[in-house]
What does this fold into?
Amino acid sequence: MAADELARSFCLKTGGAFGIHRFSPGALAIEIASERLALSGKSVLSGIAVDALAARAVQDCRTSSGLSWFEPVATTPGFFRALASTLREIRLNNIDIAILAGSGPAGSDLALLVAAYERYLTEAGLADSAEIYRTAATVVRDGRHRFSGFPLLLLDVAPRSEVERAFIQTLAGAATSVLAVIGSRDEPVLTTTPQDIRNEEPTALNRLREHIFSTAPPPTGRLDATLELLSATDEARECVEVARSILATTGLGIPFDRMAILLRSPEAYQPLVEDALRRAGIPAFFSQGSRRPNPAGRAFLALLACASEGLTASRFSEYLSLGQVPQPDAKGEPPKRDPTWVPVQGELFPDIRPAQEPEDESQPEKELRTPQHWERLLVDAAVIGGRDRWVRRLDGLRQEFEKRIEEIGAEDEPRLARLERQLERLQQLRNFALPLIDSLHNLPRNAAWGEWLDALERLAAMSLRDPKGVLTVLAELRPMTNVGPVTLDEVRDVLTHRLTFLRTEPTERRYGKVFVATIPEAAGLMFHTVFLPGLGEDLFPKRTFEDPLLLDTDRKTISPNLSVQDRRVAEERLLLHTAAGAAEEKLCISYPRMNLGQGRSRGPSFYAIEVMRAVLGHVPDLRELQRIAAEASQSQPGWPSPRTPENAIDDAEYDLAVIQKLMRLPAAERRGAARYLLSTNENLQRSLHSRWYRWSSRWSDADGIVDPDSPTVEALSQHKLNKRPYSATALQRFSVCPYQFLLSSILRLEPRPEAVALERLDPLTKGSLLHEVQYRALSELQSMRLLPITLENLADVTRNVNRVFDQTVAEYQDLLAPAILRVWENEVENLRWDIQGWIRQVSESKEGWTPKWFELSFGLGAPAVVLPNGTLVRGAIDMVEEKDGTLRITDHKTGKAQPAFGFTRNGEVLQPLLYAQAAETLLSKPAVATRLFYCTQRAGYKVDEIPVTEEGRGFLSKVIDIIDESLTQGFMPAAPRKDACTYCDYRIVCGPHEESRLRRKTTDRLRLLEHLRGIP
Ligand code: SF4
It folds into this structure.
């Protein structure tokens, strides 16, 4: 990039130039060596393929020769990547294998690994970077390349290995003339006559460049405008301060592309820089040093993990959760597309740039893009693994949903709608997941890399919305086609690190934008102002570590070319030199004052202190330094805005700064001062108004439906009790809270689904099974003339009921394919005891009722029942008994026993009386009793029975009238009875303070509701 800049500025000065070729040393070596490599049948090995070859060498040595020193760690994750780096260093520095082998146990193993690695290179016809440099140097010496006889400019070239240095020296030897620009502290590359071109102006920045890290005491000086030190509360605020400084610098007429932000730790800082610059509206160019989480790569890895772990649902869920699912085809299956060719990226292949493609703005069909629901369905289906198990469990879950739908009937419409939607999504999941599971199932087990790459490319094309990133990585592995065989686990190990993060090549131009890059990428570049964030403790410098595979003591005996700690420290220092060298007029260094990860304060790093020593001529007082840095920034603890609104980088900061100022003023002065907020954002205005109205004593629209306009009244009139049928459960909600009734029974807002522990059978499934057994058993007993159940026929009844129970359970088990058999068997055994207890309880009754009708449903597929007062109702009565031409209604309950319900228990238990009236209408016989029968051991087989009297009928009719009247008036506010919100599904809509809020409201309009809640 520095060479590009130089050529550009040269062209600007001269009006144009031809014949300037610009390369990094590696890219030039490839350019020069490729023809000769191609003639000898060799492919270039780079990037992840080097890791893959190192992994192969490890496996090879483990199975054939046997490693000794490294054997205990050879299979640990990351070993082969560390090895790849060490092997590269050994080969790039011409290390004698015999000396390496004799340097100790680690060296002996490394020698074996190098031999295996080199054997694979030869057998597979691969050329790694060491061979590329050597070949290029040979070609240069032969004078048979297209740049032969050209003059050579070396711009900030700092070779990092022996073969690279040899290549550069060979190049320089063959060039007609050489000009090299190098830093005064760089290791000499060439034998030259240096000419000192340092800037003698005694600015703080120049003193920093001159004296940093020097052991001689620097001359006394002071800070000036060329160097700035600031601090902020944390890294995010630090980046905001950088954005603020950039805006201030543009005020001096400096264009954005004359400024750079250089990052020591791009993985931690780049997202924060991006966010801060975006907020401030500053255009930025992120160099190829950017590395960020790679959702497509992670989704692909999750699929490979799914295949490796026996097709587990948890891994498949992880894939779905990453949001990379492609648009399914017309049949709902993964798209069948051929993998597109994508070029290999990287420094060695600079001319092959991916074309910038327009963003896909097509809107996929909404219902097909619901992987988060699929994820949940997979959890519900509890697929443990295996292709057959996937089919069985997905079918089982479908049956379970169908049973739940049957059980719920039309009693609870929102829940019913939700279950129906889940059923639909389950079908979508099945269509999409099973072909993918088949592909994973059919992946090779042990094959050459070529076969693996074909299969992986097909998998990426069918499983990822945008597979290009993954295909690029796979393209790097193509030279490995003939290497193998490798297992799925080895493939995963090789891909894991590379696919977890995304390294993107920029395709845009950097001009007109702030340059954001890693520090080494700024070598040879010049900017008016350079920002260097992160000069805090533990951040910059980073701790340097020895290579655990080849310790420094061994390295020193093997070759002086190998890196040791001193060189690593020097390389870290070189980064600070490079950053300071890139600043033409001003360097701005900063650090965060808090280490949020460890929850402690953080000071400037010793590099920051060293910067100040170089500039001031003495080590500054730390407290004084921290004070200067804090005062130089606008960042303040506990309030995310600058000290003054004028320095805000965006509207949010501006408003916060204004509000902070107002908060410090006396009440009289701040009255109305923030009123402008109401006109700046209509959503904020609505929110502030609504909040105020909700807590005022007056009823308003912020409380629910209170004073409806005529279209709302018209809409509500369609929901009157004589216009559409309601279930008893739906009507019962009104007394609990009219707003709950509105959300659930009219707006049909479905409650948030709650996770059900796999250790329990879903309550609806359990209820469905119990009701099915009761229905089948009573129907059979009726046809066998074994009803009513008495002590005399109890033995026969028990035998028959047990048979029906076993049959029904077997059918359900077959249909539902339970996730955990032990859980299913436990629950079934409990149910058996419940049913037997229920029969015994019934047999002890001496009241003379005979069960006649079971599962008598109305309004569920059949017409709704019209009660004498015109109210339409729907539901299903579990059992109707007859005695002397009169009826008794029973509703079987499987939940916890509730207190006795009186007639309607304050309007909250309507089922018994409502069902009694429905049965009378359907069967044209008078109902004299109605009851709730809790038929489980847990509920103690409690029976709540009341006679159906005129008084009871009157109470029911009053409840219905009040609900109807409220619908007519359109008054359905959030007015919960005591503790109603605690277990309400809509708490997430209303918030936690509804009961306290209600206490502030005038009670005049709640009279009807209070009346309803007073009905026994
Ligand atoms: S959370 Fe409270 S106020 Fe809101 S609907 Fe439920 S019961 Fe009513």
User: Anything to note?
Assistant: Residues 357-369 have pLDDT under 50 and may be disordered. The chain has 38 helices and 25 strands. The pocket of iron/sulfur cluster is lined by residues 737, 739-740, 743, 974, 976, 980-981, 984, 986-987, 990, 994 (CB under 6 Å). The longest strand covers residues 872-883.
